[in-house]
Amino acid sequence: MSETSAAAFLELVAARRGHFRLESGHHSGLWLDLDALFSEPHRIAPFVASLTTALRPYGVSVVCGPLVGGAFLAQLVAQALQIEFCFTERVMPVQSATLYQARYRLPPVFAARVDGRRVAMVDDVMSAGSALRGTYEELQAHAAVPVVAGALLILGSTGADFFAQRGVAIETVARDEYEWWLPEKCPLSAARQPLEDVPAPAA
Fold first, then answer.
1. Nearest-angstrom CA–CA distance, 118 and 179
2. How far is CA 201 from the centre of its chain?
3. Any idea which of 16-25, 79-88, 144-153, 166-175 has the lowest mean pLDDT?
4. Around Cβ 145, how many Cβ atoms within 10 Å?
5. Domain annotation covers residue 183
6. Domain holding 144: CATH number?
7. Which range of residues forms the domain containing residue 136?
8. Average pLDDT for the chain
């Protein structure tokens, strides 16, 4: 097994089974707790190095990631590429029953710095791509040029398809299958299994 395989990555995170509502609004039976992923940098280093190598040819001058894990990753990649780093912050509406309601905002200090610049967007894991989608929209609103979306692990194809349809390149270290559902089609909801809301990562 390669040390940068999907199986190797999943060994680094705490996975839970249950019934979860992701940030995107989809339901899933699997949740990856990514909070401690970067607590031991040497363990994640092979994945970071591999993604950095994949992003190098794009000629970006800024790396941007959504808080929390995406920002940690963006800082490491930016340091390796010797370019600038920035992050976006998650903003959720008070109440929402629709998909992809999370918004991601650039702190004012970064807004002018991305104008007209080629940007790589990164996150630790992308499934539906809610965090990177929000980051993409925010960067475009500030006249940045997002050219590539990268992740250490891509689960399923929904998030990657969003960027491919917009001409944004996709780079990842590992891929794996991922089962999830629209709320109205969720078999766990139909079985009346208690639903747990989870925070931003792995959405």
1. 33
2. 7
3. 16-25
4. 15
5. no
6. 3.40.50.2020
7. 6-13+38-178
8. 89
